[in-house]
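Hi L.,

You mentioned the student needs an example of a multi-chain input paired with its predicted structure. This one should do, with 576 residues in total across all chains.
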Amino acid sequence: MSQSQIAQLMDGTSLARRIVEEAAVTAANISRRTGTSPCLATVLVGEDPASVTYVRMKRARCAKAGIRSRHFALPAATTTAELVDTLTDLSGDPDVHGILLQHPCGPHIDERAAFEAIAPEKDVDGVTMRSFAEMSFSRPGFVSCTPGGIMRLLAEYDVDLAGRHAVVVGRSAILGKPVGVLLLAKDATVTYCHSRTADLSAIVREADVVVAAVGRPRLIRGADIKPGAVVIDAGYHPGNVGDVDFDTARTRARLITPVPGGVGPMTIAVLLAQTVQAAAEQLGTEHR
Amino acid sequence: MSQSQIAQLMDGTSLARRIVEEAAVTAANISRRTGTSPCLATVLVGEDPASVTYVRMKRARCAKAGIRSRHFALPAATTTAELVDTLTDLSGDPDVHGILLQHPCGPHIDERAAFEAIAPEKDVDGVTMRSFAEMSFSRPGFVSCTPGGIMRLLAEYDVDLAGRHAVVVGRSAILGKPVGVLLLAKDATVTYCHSRTADLSAIVREADVVVAAVGRPRLIRGADIKPGAVVIDAGYHPGNVGDVDFDTARTRARLITPVPGGVGPMTIAVLLAQTVQAAAEQLGTEHR
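Structure written out for the whole complex:
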């Protein structure tokens, strides 16, 4: 197989770095003008190792970008009501500009109730029903971070979406559903597939853009990819495996995100950018 | 062509009548128990003849079902701020249980701002961002009336949606978008097509269920219909023409909604049912 048939990689690491650098400049300007640096509250219930790692990474990136973070580590036995109280308090705390509830929170927590306790203007992770509706209706507001990151990647690589068929595999509230509405807002024809879809391969084969966001390792194989398609892999599984079988998919796709280094870094970059934007809005200074 | 190849009609008139009869029974129970009959506020800006007719029809159906209606006819020159004030007042008026803003309101009105002034518990037309998010996340709440009516029709005719491919043509905020999320909640694979879709016919030909909600007369032709598909026509144009070319589509479909007498009557039925439900909830009596 000749080199020309191998897909170009969509470099999320580089783009994320640029977005974070811009956010850092804005954060510094905010701090200089207002005497207050942007602040993200991170909330974690329990001690799930992956979640602990994710929160630590996010806080480390904040620190490098001049964004303060205040961490709230709640015991695993925290009730929904207690979690809602914490998030309500943070929503009312003028020193907190953005709120991140690391999820999943565990089966005993009503996650939707928790998300809804986050004030819309601090919903920098884009998890509230209000943020979802704003994305759906192309209104200003914070986007869900992974979907927002995917859209930034598509824009960076000049992927034309208008009239193209985008197939989203997965329909979660913070990934599949919002990325679909954002693609629709860019005039793509959008298909939502999921675990109940009858003939997934046949539908994916029609896609000009595939977004794999279903959480099943290597579910999408190269044979499912239309030659020349753009393949976005939002999955992450142990061993640097995504929802797409990278080695076979890259021989058919035109553009593809690697795992890691594709969608992953974009998620955090959008979180930081939106935290800085929230701080700018709440502190009444200009931004971007 | 033999009779067996002609689609069965989905009789919205009969089903709507049954739903309204049930709503009337509930309305009577509410009146008897509380001394207050359910009340729908109807708000109309200007005197567009079609809108005047629609509101008159809705109020007449209310009256027959024992639902009071209070009509607010605002002049065509009404501003968004004035309309928002009216809707905010009605949202706070304990004698009003449901609010219908007849739309379109005219180009000078920010319709979204107006819709958002409707209290969620009175949004019996299912037009607020909150109602949209609730539909999207399969939560309790009022559905948009036409999408809700379509789902009731599909259920009435035992149309199995799980895993089937539903193609929605149109993406308006109160029709295409919400019917798609309701179909997705029933485990259909859902494709949104619209004016920018590259090859509409090819996509519609893959559909097990087609929902035409695009507002273009006879856009969907029989040749676009997969034999045995279910065809829902949510369009209405002068001369009893829908978005589907009925005469050719019915020779391929298994089930099809006529125009009129399909989706149209269902919209009003759902409005009435939801008004009664809202009254029951606000007056603290049981319902359904």
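You could point out the following to them. DSSP finds ten helices and nine strands in chain B. Chain B has a mean pLDDT of 96.

Best wishes,
N.
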